[in-house]
Write a structure and sequence with these properties.
It is built from five helices and no strands. By secondary structure, the chain is mainly alpha-helical.
């Protein structure tokens, strides 16, 4: 069972942002989903604060634009990790079926060996090892 670890989330979030527009290579499930979770939390906070002051809604939209490219890049690399072309990200444009197919690709475990997109990132040191309790 995976426990919520804010330190891991922050480390993976920073790792994705440091690869701002890197579309080559592979990204683990943890890297993708921790980044996704961090974005959901930030979006929720900024949107809630938008009810207090309109300035926060402007910040919300600026933030959404700022993380669009890193989000697309990590999704692209995540698809590479499951041995799919990054262009499969476009499948999600098909209503319902495309979204389901995209979700299946994103939750699938890494291809265990090296593939044409690079070595398995699980074989390298993780930036945020999860500690067992």
């Amino acid at each position: 069972m995976i426990k919520f670890n804010p330190k891991s989330m922050i480390n993976y979030y920073k790792q994705v942002l440091s690869k701002y527009a890197v579309f080559s290579g592979r990204a683990t499930r943890a890297e993708y989903w921790w980044f996704y979770l961090a974005n959901i939390i930030i979006y929720a906070v900024l949107y809630a604060l938008g009810y207090v002051a309109d300035a926060f809604l402007i910040i919300y939209y600026i933030y959404a634009l700022a993380v669009f490219v890193p989000g697309l890049a990590v999704t692209w690399r995540r698809l590479h990790d499951t041995n799919h072309s990054g262009w499969w990200v476009l499948i999600s444009l098909i209503p319902l079926i495309g979204t389901i197919i995209s979700l299946v690709f994103l939750v699938t475990d890494s291809q265990p060996s090296d593939n044409k997109y690079g070595p398995n990132p699980k074989n390298t040191a993780s930036p945020a090892p999860v500690q067992n309790a």
